[in-house]
Amino acid sequence: MDDVRFAVLGTGGIGRRTLEVSQHKDGLTAVAACDRNGVAVDHGGLDVEELLEATEGNIASGPQDDMATDGGAAAATEGVKQHGDQAGVVASEQGRPTETPIDDVIAESDAIDAVLIALPNLEHDFIPRVAERFAEADYEGVLVDVLKRSRVIGMLDDREEQLTESGITFVCGAGATPGFLTGAAALAAQSFVEVEEVEIWWGVGLKSGYEDNRGTVREDIAHLDGYDIETAREMSEAEIEELIDEHDGVLEFHDMEHADDVLLERAGICDAEDVHVGGVLDVRSDEKPTTTTVSVTGTTFDGETGTNTFQLDDVTSMEANVNGPALGYLKAGVRNNRAGHYGVFGPADLMPRF
Amino acid sequence: MDDVRFAVLGTGGIGRRTLEVSQHKDGLTAVAACDRNGVAVDHGGLDVEELLEATEGNIASGPQDDMATDGGAAAATEGVKQHGDQAGVVASEQGRPTETPIDDVIAESDAIDAVLIALPNLEHDFIPRVAERFAEADYEGVLVDVLKRSRVIGMLDDREEQLTESGITFVCGAGATPGFLTGAAALAAQSFVEVEEVEIWWGVGLKSGYEDNRGTVREDIAHLDGYDIETAREMSEAEIEELIDEHDGVLEFHDMEHADDVLLERAGICDAEDVHVGGVLDVRSDEKPTTTTVSVTGTTFDGETGTNTFQLDDVTSMEANVNGPALGYLKAGVRNNRAGHYGVFGPADLMPRF
C-alpha cells in the first residue's frame, strides 16, 4: 500500500483539487491526467504544480467529445472552450493534444492502480459507460467517482459482472455527499441496532470557488422544485445567473436525489427511504450558510432512542471535504482490489462492517 | 461474509452484552463462550438467551485461573466467586465445567472465524499472552479485544510475526474508546491535510450498569491522580466504594492512557502526543454527566484551521457504544483475514485509508 499510482480523468474543480491534495498524502503518485483536448502521462510522477498552473480556469471539463456523447455535455465543457483550444492539459509542458484522451489513459493503465473519474455527470450513463470501456480493455484496478445521483448506482450494478470479470474495484459516490458524510452516517449508526433516520444537511459557501465549480452548481439546480436533469442541462449560463439572482445567491435544497440513500441501504445500515439529504448553497459568500451535519437517529440494543451527530467545521471548504475523502476511498479501493475484491463498492461498504 | 462464527472469552459485562447485541446483527453466529469455570460450544449456534440468563451476575469474569496468572486477576473474578462455583457458563444447560476454558475454545477454533477477548485486562500482558496461545495452536482467524491501555499495543506488535505466521488478524482496541471514537477521529480528520489535535471526551452514567462493569470502573480508577494499575488492582471493593464516596460518585479523568493515541498514529492520522482522552464517570446516575464528543482540529489543504466534531447522544449507553462497534470491527477483521491480511490492526487501520 506504500505506492499507489493514480490517474485523474478531468481537470475541472474536483480533478485539479484532488491532484493538489494528493501532494499532501503519503504514498500517492499522480501519473496521468487528461481533459477533453489533452493528456499528460509520466509513470515516474507528474509535476503536479506545473500541471495545476496550466489547467487553471478549467471548469468541470472532461473528455466528453471523445465519448461521442450528444450535445448534453457541451454546457459543462463551455469553460474550456472560453479559454480556447490551448487551455487545459495541452497547455502544460507535460501534456500533448489528443482526440482520444480516455483511450490514451486506458492504454497506459497496466501501470495505473487507480483512476479517479472527475468528470461532470449530468449524463447519467456517462460514468457507467466510462467504466465499461475500462472493463473492455481488461483493466485490473480501481475506478473511483464522486457521482451524486442515486439512480447511477443501479447502472453500475448492472455492469458489476463485467467489472468483476475484468478485475475492477469500482468505488462509487466517494466525494463529500455521498462519500464523506455517508461514511460518517455508517459510523454514527454503530450505537444502534435499528436506524430510523439519517439526515444529511450540508452548507456550502461558494463565492471564490464558484467559477471552478459551475458544473456542480448546475447539477444542484436540477434538484430544485420545477427543475430536473434535462432542464438544468439545457439552461444557458445567463439563465443560471438569473435563477441565482432570483434567490439572492442562496439556494436551498430538500429531499435531494443523493446516492447516500442507496449506498447506506446496500451496506445494511438502514432503508434508503429513511435517508434525507438537503442543504443550502450560497454562491455569493464563502461563509457557509448552515453547518454541515449528519444526524443518525436509532434505537440501541437496550431500547433507548437517540441521535448521534457529526459536524464539519464551517471553515472546511467543499473542496477539502470532497478531495480528502475521495483519496481515502481510493486507497481503500486499492487495498480491496489487491485483495481480490472486485465489483461495485459504496463508501459505507468500505467502512468496518458494523 | 454472510456467515461469521464467533466465540467470546469471558462472560462479564462486555462478553454478555456482545452476545446480546449479536442477535440483532445479520450474519453473526455465536458458537462458543467461556468463563473461568465453564465452556459452552455449539457449532450450530448457541442458545444465547439461555446462556445470558445463566450468566446473569457475572462480573467481568474470565478464565484467568486457566492462565496461571498471579494473584492480580483475583480481584476481577471476585464477582463470580461471590456467586459460587455453579454460577456462570456452567450454570447454563449448554455449559460444562472445565479447568482449561481457553484451551477448550482453541480446540474448537478450526470452525471459529473470530474470537472476542472480553476479559479484564488489568494484567497488561494478559491479552498478548492469550493471543500467543492461539498462535501456538496455529489458529487461522480473527482475535478482537476491547483493551484500553496504549502500552498493550506495543506488546501485541512484539508478537506480530508470530500472529502473522499463524494466520491471525488481531484487531486491538475495538470497543468504545479506543474503538468507536478512534474510528470517528480517523473519519473526522478527512477534511484536513494536517491534524493538530484530537480530543476525546466521554461521559458515562453507570448506576444500573455498575455491578456489571466493576472491572471497567477499577481500571478507570488507575487513571486518577495518585493511582496506577498496581494500586487499583490491589484495592478491595470497600476501598473502591470509599473512593467513590469521596467523589460523590462522580470521577473525572484527564490525559488518560488510552490507546487511541498510538492507534491513530499507526494509521497515519496524527502524532500520538496530540491525542488527549478524558471523561467523566458517574456511578450514581444513569444520566451521562457530560456528552461524549470527539473533536478533531486540523488544517485544510487550502489553509483553514477548524474543528470537526462527532457526538454521541446522551441516551446511548456505554454498552451500546462498545458492543456494536466491537462486532463491526470483528466483521472487518474477518473480511481482512479472508483476504490474507494478518498481523495487528487498530480501528483506524480498518477505516478507509485516508
Walk me through the topology:
The structure is a homodimer of 354-residue chains.
Chain A: E1 4-9, H1 13-22, E2 28-34, E3 38-41, H2 48-55, H3 74-82, E4 95-97, H4 101-107, E5 114-117, H5 126-136, E6 141-145, H6 150-158, H7 160-166, E7 168-171, H8 180-188, E8 194-205, H9 214-221, H10 229-234, H11 237-246, E9 250-253, H12 260-266, E10 275-282, E11 293-299, E12 305-311, H13 318-338, E13 343-345
Parallel strand pairs in A: 1-2, 1-5, 5-6, 6-7, 7-13, 8-10
Antiparallel strand pairs in A: 2-3, 3-4, 8-11, 9-10, 11-12
Helix pairs in contact in A: 1-13, 5-7
Quick gist of this model?
Two copies of one chain form a homodimer. The first copy, chain A, has 354 residues and is of the alpha/beta class.
Mind explaining what this structure looks like?
The structure is a homodimer of 354-residue chains. Chain A has 354 residues and is α/β, with parallel strands linked by helices. The first copy, chain A, is built from 13 helices and 13 strands. In chain A, helix 5 packs parallel to helix 7 (160-166). Chain A has helices at 13-22, 48-55, 74-82, 101-107, 126-136, 150-158, 160-166, 180-188, 214-221, 229-234, 237-246, 260-266, 318-338, and strands spanning 4-9, 28-34, 38-41, 95-97, 114-117, 141-145, 168-171, 194-205, 250-253, 275-282, 293-299, 305-311, 343-345. Chains A and B meet through helix 1, helix 8, strand 12 and helix 13 of A and helix 1, helix 8, strand 12 and helix 13 of B.
